[in-house]
Structure formats: structure tokens, C-alpha cells
Amino acid sequence: MVTTKIIAPAPGAYAYPLLIKSLLLSGARYSPDQEIVYADKLRYSYRTLNQRIQQLANALTQAGVKAGDTVALLDWDSHRYLECFFAVPMLGAVLHTVNIRLSDEQILYTMNHAEDDLVLVHDDFLPLMERIHDQLTTVKGYLQLSDADAPATTLPVLGEYEDLLAQAEPHFEFPDFDEHSVATLFYTTGTTGNPKGVYFSHRQLVLHTLNAVGTLGVYQGAPLLRSDDVYMPITLMFHVHAWGVPYVATLMGIKQVYPGRYEPNLLVRLFREEKVSFSHCVPTILQMILGCDEATRTDFNGWKMLLGGSALTQGLASQATARGIRVHSGYGMSETCPLLCVTHLRDVELEQPAQAQVAARIKTGVAVPMVDLKIIDANGNEAPQDGEALGEIVVRAPWLTQGYLKDPDQGAQLWEQGWMHTGDIASIDALGVIEIKDRIKDVIKTGGEWVSSLELENLLSEHPAVTSVAVVGIPDSQWGERPMALVVCAAGECITADMLVAHLHQYVERGHINKWAIPKQIRVVADIPKTSVGKINKRLIRELELSQQALDIG
């Protein structure tokens, strides 16, 4: 243990805790008249936002919420979600952002596991809550969230959100408490078992926010979010706090646009009408936006887009760039809050034409400040920074979750030897640029050699008729595993497996891939299975393929 010098503070010195309430100080101070917009339904100023957060705190207190309680939220992306991001944890309670895309059984499990006390539920999710209400073991009541007249329900509702706020006092004195107090909780699904509870403290969220303000704003190579930008999330707010950006935007006092339920044509209209300049989403959402009707009559120039959650392919990035969208890749996990890496272009790359920049923009990026990241081999040794050697990404940062709720064994596995293990295989070059090659569970081992499913997806995506693609490994009696590809064809195009095999052979001839890496099966399909947060669901693809093989054998 290192012995350091500590000087006692002066009598009366204030030990400033890092609490979420401090993030509200600057927005209304610098931009009191700036707007918060909810789709085409509502808009108000930052002055009103701060007042509504205080009214919500009073309404929640009147409903019986106290420090240490857990408040569940089921809503579309809205101004209410933003208000709950602040009011609930600022009371000392825990905000459980419920994954509305899970099955009834999984939602029931997460709410009982979280021991939710009060539930805020949008009208669209009343039928869901009515189905599982009798099996919820800790819930004491509900607040109803309505965009129009509130429908009747059999749930024990304490009142409607807007009505309760209208009746509440516009001032609330938020207390100080330990900055290590849990602020938020959500559940992430894995390949097996029940969803795992991921939680973050006030201190972690404040540090993540401050870091993101700098990372997204100050670097010329990644100027994504600055004071004159208009922000619209297209990453569901139940998922890692919409990547933490609503906290960033509120601290900065910039215009925020919340789209409600995601519908591609609405998203494009909001982009146009509200002059949105920065969004973030998973690649599948970007593909939906580019393919919708409104996109055909929209100039996308000026829209900066941060892509994460799954690999951004060369084909999709090129398509977006051609339409005027400036794409950047970001990297993180549910467990990392999530920011770990962001594309950072250097001057020589920024001087190139937009399409020539695509190869650099789809790489995983550079670790952001305060992230200690390394790549280790199977023996735990750090891989050289040569852009070739592969290993698992392990990280340390001040905002990483410290475990899983009520699951110490899984938490210990996550934090083996004091580093968070991501499960992602990557290389790192001499400039610190990271390039993820695959998930450990998705790397394909065929004939004793490793094949990257992400590399094959990237190459297939470059065919002009391909809009999306997924590659997985399937069992093979001769080679152990062989790649299989699912491909979605662009509207009005016609493509066959033989055409795609011929397309891949050009990369064999150039030495990019070996001939045995070409998928044994390529299927042209109408859609590719997705997870609850819009990522390609490779686990389900493998399961469906194995089931089909079993039927064929039978």
C-alpha cells in the first residue's frame, strides 16, 4: 500500500458529492429558452424542464416513493423519460428502465428481481402489465402515462402523470447523499439464463457524462455534439440510458427531440422539421431510415450519426455517406455505461473525400479519455500494437458497473483478475486504433483456422444489391464449423447465392480471405432476426438453423 499525504479539510468545507442533480445546473443557466421536444405532441423550455422535474419529485413522494425504493418505467422515448432520468435518482431512489421488447415472462422476472415498488406505465403497455400484475411480488401501485385521454385499466393506478404534475408543487429540495448510491438499473440478455441486472451509481453516471461531453465535443476528429447541435436519440432509452447522451445534452443545454415510438418515416420528418444534427443508433435502425419512403425526398446532409451495438459494415456506411450522413463508430457494452471508444479521424483522413474516409469511420475507434484498455491473448499477455495480433478487449474505467445485481458469480466472471472482460476479439495498431474482429462466441473455427464473421459480413455488404447480412458458424462434420450467411436483398434487386459466392471470390483472389472462408450456405431472406435492442440475433439464427437441420435429418 502506497503512503500518501492527506490534508484535513477546513472546518465547514463542503465535500461536493457527484450526484445527478448537479447535471441540471448548467442547461437552464446557459440556455433557459432552449427547447425539449416530444415528437409532434409537445415542446417546452429548459426552465420548464427543471420545474417539471421538481413537480415529478413531489408527485412521486406523494405516491410513497422514498430513498432506496425502485421505480420501474415503461414508456416510449419521451420528455417523461428524460424527466424520470433525473427526478427518480435525485430522490435517492433507483430508476429501473424496463426493456419493453422482452417477453412477458422476462419482464416479469426483471421486475420481481429488481423488487420494483412503483411502476410508471404508458398506455400502450397497460395490457402487458394487466397480464402480469397478479404475479408481481413487490409493486404497490402505478402511475399512468398518457399522450391523449387515459383509457380505463384494471391496474391500481394512483393517477395520470400529467394530472399529478399539474397538482404538485413546483419546488423540491433534493437532498445530498452518498455518490456511490445506485441511481439506475436495467437488464441485459445473454445467450443463456435469465436477464442480468446492470446497475450504475450517481458517481459513475456523472463521470461518464463529463467524459462524454469532452469526447463528443472537443476533438476536431470527432465533432459530434456541440452547443449549436440538435440532438435526437434513436437508441431506446431503456437501453444504457440511451447511451448516456440525454444526460450530456441536458448538461449542455442543447435542443433535444424525443421521437416517441420509433417509426422510420417519422424519424426522418423530425430530422427535417426540427433540424436534427446528431443522433445515435444501431446499424439496423440506420438501414430502416435509409430505406423508408420519406428518405427518398430528404437531403441528409448535416446529420452526424454515431453507430454502435453491432458492427457497421462498409456497405451500409458507404450508402449513408452517399446520402450525406456523417457516420462515426462507437464501442461499448451495457456493462460499461457504455462509452469506451469512438472513431477519431486524423487530419490526413479528414482531408480525403467522404467516401475515402469510410474505411476509417467503420473501425472501432480509439479508447476515450480515462478508459484503460488493452488486448490480451488466451494466457493473459498483452498483444502487440501491430494491427494484426488478436486478443480479447479488457477494460477499466471509473464508470463501469461493479457487478450484476444479486449475482456475485457472474460479476466475478465479468471482472476476472480485476479487468472487465468484454468478450470481443480485436486488434490494436500503433496509433491506438482498435478494430473488433468478432465476439469470442461468434468467431468461426473451420478446419482448425479462425474465420471472422464480421469480416465476411463486411465483404458481403459491399455487393450493391445487399442491404443487410449476418454470418454465423454452423456445425460441419468434416471441418467442425463452416460459415453460413443470411442476406437481405435491396428492394427491386434480384440476387442469388451463386452471385454472392462469385462476389466473395474476388476477395480470395486479392488475398483478403481464404477460399475456405466462403460460406457453405448463403440464403437470401426477407428479414434477419434481431434482439430486443435491434442487434442481429446470431444466437437465434444458430438455434433456428440447428432446428432445421434436425428436421431435415428426421
From TrEMBL:
Family: Belongs to the ATP-dependent AMP-binding enzyme family.
Pfam families from the UniProt entry: AMP-binding, AMP-binding_C
Record organism: Pseudomonas arsenicoxydans
One annotated GO molecular function: ligase activity, forming carbon-sulfur bonds
Keyword Cytoplasm carried by entry: no
Gene3D superfamilies referenced in this protein's UniProt entry, alphabetically: 3.30.300.30, N-terminal domain of ligase-like
PROSITE patterns referenced in this protein's UniProt entry, alphabetically: AMP_BINDING
Name of this chain's protein: Fatty-acyl-CoA synthase
Keyword Hydrolase: no
